[in-house]
Amino acid sequence: xxxxxxxxILAFFLCVAILWLIKYRINVYRSIGNVEHVxxxxxxxxxxxxxxxKAASKVIIEYFRENFGNxxxxxLTYDEDITKEFMEENxxxxxxxxxxxxxxxxxxxxxxxxxxxYSWKLEKENNQWIVKDCGQG
Length: 137
Prior knowledge:
This protein is an alpha+beta fold. 41% of the residues lie in helices and 30% in strands. A five-stranded mixed beta sheet has the order 1-2-3-4-5.
């Protein structure tokens, strides 16, 4: 009787260990966007300082890293003209960047191994840049 109780306890702990490893493996190998070598073009601005443009670009890079798994962002450019248009329409602090990236393999929505250009619209809330919209165009 004692051996069967020990076997049940060992089986239980083995199951817990397997479940923990599955969960850990999923978190460790979660696909993230590649943002290691992004060519930055902050341009000139009559609206925002270089520090403000850099802060906004960091938000975009982090957003890309977290939400564009298996893709590589290789260029990010500040767009003063589109920024002005959005600000005139919305009366908010808005900044717009244009980004070029390449998709990887096994993409659900986009074509595998293809280049895309997205615009990134951010708004300032509580003195922090927040990504409000991104997409082609």
